[in-house]
Specification:
The complex is a heterodimer of chains A (about 1050) and B (about 300). In chain A, helix 17 packs across helix 18, helix 18 packs across helix 19 and helix 36 crosses helix 37. Chain A has five domains: about 220 residues, no CATH class; about 110 residues, no CATH class; about 130 residues, no CATH class; about 220 residues, Rossmann fold; about 240 residues, P-loop containing nucleotide triphosphate hydrolases (Rossmann fold, 3-Layer(aba) Sandwich). By secondary structure, chain A is an alpha/beta fold. By secondary structure, chain B is of the alpha+beta class. Chain B folds into two domains: about 190 residues, no CATH class; about 55 residues, no CATH class. The two termini of chain B are about 55 Å apart. The chains are: A alpha/beta (about 1050), B alpha+beta (about 300). Chains A and B meet through strand 4, helix 4, strand 7, helix 5 and helix 6 of A and helix 4, helix 8, helix 9, strand 5 and helix 10 of B.
Chain lengths: ~1050, ~300
């Protein structure tokens, strides 16, 4: 893997240097004697220029790499004697060395230098998640944020043209303008800059640039480059008559829009030109924020029926914006200092006067008041007040003045709005199954002011006033001219309303949208079941809790009853539900309870038709087990394997079953078979499997017919937006609009720019359809036991099954002829081999072959780890085999690209302590810790983990519990989930059953080890070891 | 260039070139860009010195003025003519009397606009009204108020050397409009101070304000040198994770240009500020497109 870093060179015109560390290059440099050298040496594992170009080229769509040159830079890195320390993102084979003295040492690195415009382009177009084998260093991530900020400043037009002088040559450049709010953000960015961004070896005599210098150079250069290049195809100059003499103003405008920023004129000429530009430009300098007070303008609405608005002048304390000193008080002060509520204001009169002079540029109405000696306020007509609100107020604020506006301003209720009135098209009873996202709803638009609906006559009266601010029923409202026009057009068309789907109606009701009327939607009023649906879907609405079905074989926790009630509620309205509770909270049993509830009080004949469950192969067995355990009333049919039913036989068989369990792979392969059936319900477990909308299996699944749809997923869907869209589009097609719309409206603003309002809108839209509870939820945590033990039933792969059967066969051939010690040895060695096969074929074969997709356990482990890593959780993984531990160690590290620890018998005490400390103390440190049961089972404290996996079994609960207690002990603040892996149809399942059946017995017998197995008769052994084929994975 | 009859009677028309002379910025058209300097030239023209003034303009453009010094009430300059040594030019404008200034500032104190504009660095547009109220004039009311002298042999007044200095003065007024006050005897700061005193006089006595020291100085957020960042060398601050960016069009279009107002330059009939407006619109749209990942329009 490589880790990509970025350095900003602020010298001259600025360059972004990309460089990378590689995990495959040697970590150390030849040893040198004596003191650390002062001169830089080549960095041992920095990527050379050619592979660097290739790596960067594969990341970026643009062709910047083609034209890019290369550079060699000296940088300073924390280093040990043997070489530079790798960045934490770089995952290397070696276990960390004992720390010798770490000092800053100079190294040479190859870099790919990018000009400011290419740099901005590259940083903006970088994918959010690096592709496999690449990690983004913190310095690169930092410059990505800075680049987004540059871009935002350009979109908001926060830049000015100016002239830079450098060694007697003059350049026309664009420079950013940072207002007060932005300067806080600049400060935040610059405080967050990782020190590695300053790794440049300072030039001789030179001083290393500070974070704020680097940042400001980066922002100014990238903004200049972008603005310049966006203007390259046009001219700022008026069309010219053939004049030869080019004035400096013309030259300046030209140089601002071309790639050559130089100004050709004598130093003196440009000097005096820039002398004149500067005072002009300096007018936008905001009042320095370190002054204790500023001038503030307060607009007050007229009292009663008067039409006179007032803007009064005040001084406002910078540290307490509610502290206002009225102008009158300022004029009444004789000395050069005014104190007010313990604040001290110096030269207040001059300040106020100067500010009023300055403010009159953007708020010319002030001039009138300045004709008096001691101006305190200015009166405005309604039109002027409106222009103050819309234009002057924001400009005054940007100029650094305080502005206080009446509280009604910009409240949605103080505007013209559209209101949607909905009526069900057909009468239907809630729960009759006749409703759904595509149910037709009749609608009508109304125009409203605040909450009050306006009749056409009332509206006409308002519009005829032709003023932008009107007092209606004692309340000021804004009548935007463009909105008045939209409303006039609306009434002219005599909108009779129409029909829309329930989905669209919900979308309008839940998310703020601009209606077809051209006005913001303020509310939705709905009648009949539509109204009921809307009310109950809105945020915070209570869903009636239902009685858990008697037929449920077990106890539902309170939050699980809520989940069940929620599933039932959405079902009533025919709406698809996404149950997205954290792993381990019991989504499976909530769904089983839901299926049972659907059958409560009905005679078997009138039970609903079959439900189709699609899940990954790795959990098929688990589902069957769980349904048999918690809902024995439900008939389950597993549809997979070579001998699965087809055609008529399938159609016949499913009629006798309540739940058909099949896999994602088969959903595509048996698409034709499945799509012929009209299912009662289609449910997707681990629904993130349909995240790719263009995948064949996703498309096949979307074609399935069902009365109702449910998805189950443990990944945080709200953070994975494309996945969320795919799932929602399966559940409630069309509700989130097309994938392209969704990408533009939500994915980019939220994922790239963390736009809080879009995130909020999306949350409101999906909130009714997604139920996600986390283990740390305060309402959940009390319902949960501190430790939850769960069996994870896995299926063998075909390869595993073949190996398994061969081992059993070999034993059975030999066992007849063996006795005593020999027999005992044979049984134990067979046991060992079978355990290895259950773990992984490569574990049994010991051939170093590849790991992916060959072991049911490993596949399931990966799926579960992915979920918990996405949650930010940490896990311990126990195995009794050091070889298996080593295999997992390498494999998981590569799969998840995260650092993984491995503790086994060969680990030294020093290494062990270092590992434990990093796992416990560093919250950004390694999230996965693999331990051999023997080496890691005792004594150590690993409470940073809240998941414990037993990848294989010792069959001794005491030993397993001791291991589990590494995480489940004093200091643990979360609930601990223990996942015990069991291969279905194998000896693992049988022994597990035996132990469960006679737990007490087991503890006494089994407690001593596995020798008790050797005492069994051959027949008993046959039963225990034999493989049941139906538990084997479909490949 | 010169007519034959100039020969022997007049000095040759070509003056001696000056290295590093003070040239006007404007090399064609009118000299003086603000209403203020235009007013100055206008006043001089109104004295009927039009043709004589024009002769100084090319001198001013060529940079024949070697030095210029503006003091209270008096401008002295050296202007290079045809002779080896530059001529000495002196222009005196009669300073206003203390009493006159008192009356002028009284008039100014009656309207906040004067102090407001002066303090924000602008010449109040109605400044001449304040002088008119005190029955004096800011600009010279007649040619008599200007006492000029030049060491050249030309007895026309203004000679081209004086005229050149008039033009350079116009440009000086562009840069610092308050120079005219200096010529009338007071600096801007002195006027502001007088206005402050007058505001105070008109106020009732009040208790001396208590002075309470408040500490507004910001904490110094010093950046530790790299040597002290070994443990955090590769770590970005946690705040970076919550840094939000919101690419969007501005609330008020071209707000910065609106705040700046007209630029002190024009190209043809267009003010530079209005020519710049296009740049803001184009760049802002291009950036928004890029931010939203939409294909760039070519």
């Amino acid at each position: 893997m490589i880790v990509l870093h970025a350095l900003w060179d602020n010298i001259a015109f600025g360059k972004l240097h990309l460089w990378a560390e590689s995990s495959t290059l040697p970590a150390i440099t030849p040893k040198i004697r004596g003191r650390q050298p002062k001169k830089p040496r080549p960095h041992p594992f920095a990527l050379a220029i050619d592979p660097l170009k290739e790596a960067v080229g594969s990341l970026s769509e643009s062709l910047i790499v083609e034209s890019a040159t290369s550079a060699v830079l000296p940088i300073l890195l924390p280093s040990a004697r043997k070489g530079p320390l790798p960045s934490p993102e770089l995952i290397r084979e070696e276990i960390i060395e004992d720390k010798d003295e770490i000092v800053l040492t100079p190294w040479y690195i190859d870099t790919l230098p990018l000009d400011p415009d290419d740099a901005l382009d590259f940083l903006i177009s970088l994918p959010g998640e690096p592709p496999h084998g690449v990690a983004f260093g913190s310095s690169l991530c930092f410059w990505v944020e800075a680049a987004k900020f540059s871009l935002e400043l350009i979109t908001r037009q926060c830049f000015i043209p100016t002239i830079n002088e450098d060694k007697g040559s003059f350049r026309a450049v664009w420079r950013v303008v940072i207002d007060e709010e932005d300067s806080e953000r600049v400060q935040l960015l610059s405080n967050s800059m990782p020190p590695s961004c300053r790794a440049f070896l300072p030039q001789e005599e030179g001083r290393a640039p500070s974070p704020s210098e680097l940042l400001s150079s980066f922002i100014n250069r990238t903004v200049d480059a972008f603005v310049r290049s966006s203007l390259s195809s046009m001219s700022l100059l008026p069309t010219r008559r053939g004049r030869r003499v080019v004035s400096l103003s013309e030259q300046w405008l030209k140089a601002l829009s071309s790639d050559d920023p130089r100004l050709e004129a004598s130093t003196e000429e440009v000097g005096s030109f820039s002398q004149e530009i500067k005072p002009w430009l300096s007018q936008i300098q905001p009042t320095p924020s370190d002054t204790p007070f500023r001038t503030c303008f307060r607009l007050d609405s007229p009292d009663g029926d008067a039409q006179e608005w007032k803007v009064s002048f005040h001084l406002q304390a910078s540290d307490d914006r509610s502290l206002l000193v009225p102008a009158k008080k300022v004029w009444g002060t004789r000395s050069g200092v005014i104190t007010f509520l313990k604040r001290r204001f110096e030269n207040p009169q001059e300040r106020l006067l100067a500010d009023l002079g300055r403010a009159s540029r953007v708020f010319p109405a002030i001039d009138e008041s300045l004709k008096t000696a001691r101006p305190v306020e200015v009166s405005l007509g309604t039109e002027q007040a409106y222009s103050f609100l819309r234009q002057s107020a924001p400009l005054l604020e940007q100029s650094g003045f305080g502005v206080l506006l009446p509280p009604w301003w910009q409240k949605p209720s103080a505007r013209l709005n559209a209101k949607l009135r909905l009526k069900p098209k057909a009468k239907a009873r809630v729960g009759s199954g006749l409703m759904g996202m595509d149910s037709i709803v009749a609608y009508d638009w109304e125009i409203a002011l605040g909450d009050e609906t306006l009749s056409p006559a009332e509206f006409e009266k308002l519009a005829s006033l032709k003023v932008p601010l009107v007092k209606v029923r004692g309340q000021w409202v804004e009548l935007r001219p463009e909105e008045i026009e939209a409303a006039i057009a609306f009434f002219q068309k005599k909108h009779d309303g129409g029909e829309m789907g329930l989905g669209e109606a919900l979308r309008i009701g839940l998310g703020p949208e601009v209606s077809e009327v051209g006005l913001p939607v303020i509310g939705v009023e709905a009648e009949g079941w539509v109204g009921e649906c809307m009310d109950r879907l809105s945020e915070g609405a209570k869903i009636a809790e239902i009685e858990p079905p008697q037929s449920f074989n077990g106890q539902l926790r309170p939050y699980q009853i809520k989940g069940l009630s929620w599933l039932v509620f959405l079902k009533q309205f025919g709406l698809g539900a996404c149950l997205a509770d954290d792993m381990g909270l019991g989504k499976t049993i909530e769904f089983i309870a839901f299926m049972l509830h659907e059958r409560v009080g009905r005679r078997k004949k009138s039970w609903p038709g079959p439900t189709l469950l699609i899940c990954p192969m790795s959990v098929v067995g688990n589902w069957k087990k769980e349904v048999e355990r918690f809902g024995p009333l439900l008939k389950v049919m597993v549809h997979h394997g070579a001998d699965r039913l087809s055609g008529k036989a399938f159609e016949k068989a499913i009629k006798k079953h309540d739940l058909v369990v099949s896999t994602y792979a088969l959903a595509h392969r048996d698409e034709e078979l499945f799509s012929r059936i009209h299912w009662e319900c289609v449910v997707l477990d681990e629904a993130q499997n349909i995240k790719n909308p263009s995948a064949k299996q996703t498309q096949a699944i979307r074609k399935l017919n069902a009365n109702h749809k449910v998805t189950l997923t443990g990944t945080p869907v709200e953070n994975r937006l494309s996945e969320l869209w795919s799932i929602m589009d399966f559940l409630n097609p069309g509700y989130l609009k097309s994938a392209q719309d969704f990408h533009r409206n939500f994915v980019i603003p939220i994922e790239k720019y963390r736009n809080p309002t879009r995130a909020e809108t999306l949350k409101r839209l999906i909130q009714p359809f997604v139920l996600r509870r986390t283990k740390t939820d305060p309402t959940i945590i009390n319902d949960l036991p501190e430790k939850m033990e769960m069996k994870v039933f896995c299926n063998l792969s075909q390869e595993q099954a073949t190996l398994y059967e061969a081992v059993v066969k070999e034993m059975l051939e030999k066992i007849e002829d063996s006795e005593g010690i020999e027999r005992k040895g044979l049984v134990l060695s067979t046991l060992l081999k079978l355990k290895q096969v259950c773990n992984h074929p490569a574990h049994f074969l010991q051939d170093g072959s590849k790991l992916p997709e060959r072991s049911g356990k490993l596949i399931r482990l990966e799926e579960m780890l992915e979920e918990l890593l996405a949650e930010g959780d940490k896990a311990l993984i126990f195995t009794q085999f050091a070889e298996m531990g080593a295999m997992l160690h390498n494999h998981l590290r590569e799969t998840f690209g995260c650092e993984t620890l491995f503790l086994y018998g060969g680990t030294t005490k020093k290494q062990r302590d270092a590992m434990i400390q990093r796992f416990q103390d560093d919250h950004r440190g390694p999230p996965l810790f693999i331990l051999s049961l023997k080496a890691g089972g005792l004594g150590i404290n690993l409470t940073a983990a809240n998941h414990v996996f037993h990848f294989d079994r010792w069959w001794n609960p005491a030993v397993e519990n001791q291991a589990t207690d590494r995480a489940f002990r004093i200091g643990q603040k979360k609930n601990v989930q223990v996942h015990k892996f069991v291969c279905l149809g194998t000896l693992e399942e049988r022994i597990d059953e035996m132990i469960e059946r006679k737990k007490e017995l087991a503890e006494s017998i089994v407690g001593t080890g596995e020798t008790w197995l050797t005492e069994m008769s051959t027949d008993q052994l046959k039963k225990i070891f034999a493989l049941s084929r139906d538990a084997v994975r479909e490949e | 260039m010169g007519r034959w009859s100039d020969w022997g009677y007049y000095e040759p028309a070509r003056p001696k070139p000056v290295k590093d002379g003070i040239k006007t910025k404007s090399q064609r058209g009118e000299i003086g860009e603000t209403w203020w300097s235009k007013r100055w030239i206008g006043v001089l023209h109104s004295f009927g010195m039009g043709a004589r003034l024009d002769r100084g303009r090319s001198y001013a453009r060529k940079g024949q003025v070697v030095s210029i010094d503006i003091q209270n009430g008096i401008v002295t300059a050296k202007v290079q003519g045809t002779r080896a040594r530059p001529y000495s030019v002196k222009i005196e404008l009669k300073p206003l009397s203390e009493k006159d200034w008192d009356e002028v500032t009284d008039a100014m104190a009656a309207q906040a606009v004067f102090a407001a504009k002066l303090l924000s660095g602008e010449m109040p547009p109605n400044i001449e009204e304040a002088f008119a109220e005190a029955k004096v004039s800011l600009f010279p009311a007649s040619e008599k108020e200007l006492d000029t002298d030049c060491s050249c042999p030309d007895w026309a007044n203004p000679c081209k050397h004086i005229a050149a200095v008039y033009y350079l003065l116009a440009e000086s007024f562009d840069e610092d409009p308050f120079l005219i006050f200096k010529l009338r005897g007071l600096t801007k700061e002195e006027i502001i101070e007088m206005l402050r005193e007058k505001r105070a006089q008109t106020l009732p006595e009040e208790e001396a304000s208590r002075v309470i020291e408040a500490d507004f100085s910001e904490e110094d957020s010093a950046v530790p040198p790299l040597e002290e960042c070994m443990d955090t060398f590769w770590q970005a601050g946690e705040a970076l994770d919550s840094f939000t960016v919101n690419p969007t069009h501005p609330e008020v279009d071209n707000a910065i240009l609106k705040r700046l107002g007209n630029a002190p330059f024009t190209v043809g009939k267009h003010n530079v500020a209005s020519l710049l407006a296009k740049a803001y619109t184009v760049a802002s749209s291009a950036a928004l497109q890029k931010a939203l990942g939409e294909p760039q329009e070519e």
